[in-house]
Amino acid sequence: MNQVKYNSLKDAFDAFNDLRILVIGDAMIDSYLWGDVERISPEAPVPVVSKTNRESRLGGAANVAINIKALGAKPILASVIGNDHNAQLFKNLMSDQQLPKNGIFESNTRSTTIKTRIVSHKQQLLRIDEENSQELDQSTEEAFLKHLLYIMDQDQLHAVVFEDYDKGTITPDIISRVTEKANEKGLPILVDPKKRNYLNYRNVTLFKPNFKELKEGLKLDHFAAGDYEQIFSAMKVMHQEQQLKWIMVTLSEKGLMISNGQQYKHIPAKVRDISDVSGAGDTIISIAGVGMAAGLSPWVIAEISNIGGGQVCERSGVVPVDKDKLLEESLEHISFLE
């Protein structure tokens, strides 16, 4: 990754508008059914929900694409969905968000992932998941990989983001081949991992687990989120064994840590009125992806990402980052660009 010198943080944010970022991962529909509960069913000891509203939104890797678009950059969402009734809803939601569909691959052997949450009086009563979580079958994997490599050849990309939700879209071979091609092209590669593929990501630019994923991925359980030296020791092992240039670990209310293998920096979370932590990880990897594509220093990217992750937690529901507010608060707390 080549760093770029900007005269100001505002100039860097303006440069976001010229960037194109490929987002590869598990995309899904988040469906919400709201209703009132006034009685218990006579058939079983369960609440009866009288529906008042229903809404569907894009989730998973699609939420990363939405955040990247909110930052001014142009995302290309690449994911596998089913050839089913939910596929059309998914594509309609993409149209609503003005996201390009050229990265979407439809498969007859998969179903479109949809998670339906039943909510009453701001409390989630039940979640129903409709999904295939096994890895892609060989023919679908080969076709999707060919599709990805074609996009990487044809499009003028500035970064690649793997958004892994453990739903099977990202396979070891896809990771290996896409990473190899991205490195050949000199593109920053960012990863938001999950457990299944955790150790399959190698030779990437930035690896962003949360604290739980860090411990599970390395099978460690003997240190706490505030034990920064122990966390750094674990990060150094990953740097060496997986050839990771940068690792950024999110630590919930304790902020985040970033390391290049030789040194680390802990960035505390700002004191905020937290409303909802949903989607904060998607926001952080989106900011990091755009920042890497723009050539910002990873130390500065970590500062901005920490601010953006905190800002979305102040708002209810899964919402994209507000670019203007992110710049405003970043200018208050980041006095120079490294």
Task: Give your account of this protein's structure.
The protein has 10 helices and 13 strands. It has helices spanning 9-15, 61-70, 85-96, 138-154, 172-185, 211-218, 228-242, 280-294, 298-313, 323-333; strands spanning 20-25, 27-40, 47-60, 74-82, 104-107, 114-120, 123-130, 159-163, 189-192, 206-207, 246-250, 256-259, 264-267. It has a single domain, classed as Ribokinase (UDP-N-acetylmuramoyl-L-alanine:D-glutamate ligase, 3-Layer(aba) Sandwich), CATH 3.40.1190.20. It has 338 residues and is of the alpha/beta class. Helix 2 (61-70) crosses helix 8 (280-294) and helix 9 (298-313) crosses helix 10 (323-333). It is 37% helix and 25% strand. Strand 8 (159-163), helix 5 (172-185) and strand 9 (189-192) form a beta-alpha-beta unit. The protein is globular, with a radius of gyration of 20 Å. Strands 5-4-1-8-9-10-11-12-13 form a 9-stranded mixed sheet, with helices on both faces.
Could you name the CATH topology? UDP-N-acetylmuramoyl-L-alanine:D-glutamate ligase
Question: For the CA atoms, what is the radius of gyration?
Answer: 20 Å
The total of beta strands comes to 13
| The CATH class | Alpha Beta
Q: State the end-to-end distance.
A: 15 Å
| H and E order | HEEEHEHEEEHEHEEHHEEEHHH
How is the main sheet built?
A: 9 strands, mixed
Number of domains: 1
Question: Hey, roughly how much beta strand do the residues contain?
Answer: 25-35%
The assigned CATH architecture is 3-Layer(aba) Sandwich
User: Which regions contain 5 or more consecutive residues with pLDDT less than 50?
Assistant: none
Average per-residue pLDDT, rounded, comes to 91
Query: What level of helicity do the residues show?
Result: 25-40%
| Number of helices in the DSSP assignment | 10
Sheet with the most strands: spatial strand order: 5-4-1-8-9-10-11-12-13
CATH homologous superfamily? Ribokinase
Q: Helix- and strand-based class?
A: alpha/beta
- Characterize the overall form: globular
